[in-house]
Specification:
This is Thioredoxin. The structure is a single chain. The protein has helices spanning 10-15, 31-46, 62-67, 94-104, and strands spanning 2-4, 21-26, 52-57, 75-80, 83-89. By secondary structure, it is of the alpha/beta class.
């Protein structure tokens, strides 16, 4: 299940998480983000219990996007123990994104 990540719950859901977290920084108007949405949803189901998967709307959470240097979207960042461990910018294959998650697990 995908989490909705916001500036209000980021600390609790991402920084304090005891498992890695993939955060998909996206916007509703972004074509490549829409292409990645089903891939991110599949990974959320496949990695349930091993890695949290969340989506963060950059238009609604500009401070988070700025804090983590999100300049282009989609931008998927894998966090572990509150630190950035992997970063993928743009539409990529499910395999490529899974490999990034696996490298952190």
């Amino acid at each position: 299940m995908e989490l909705k990540i916001t500036e209000q719950n980021f600390e609790e859901e991402v920084v304090k998480s005891n498992i890695p977290v993939l955060v998909d920084f996206y916007a509703d108007w972004c074509g490549p983000c829409k292409m990645m949405a089903p891939v991110v949803a599949e990974l959320a189901a496949e990695y349930e219990g091993k890695c949290k998967v969340g989506k963060c709307n950059v238009d609604e959470n500009m401070n988070l996007a700025q804090k983590y240097g999100v300049m282009s979207i989609p931008n998927m960042i894998v966090f572990k123990s509150g630190e950035v461990k992997a970063n993928v910018v743009g539409a990529v294959s499910k395999t490529d994104l899974a490999d990034k998650i696996d490298s952190v697990l």
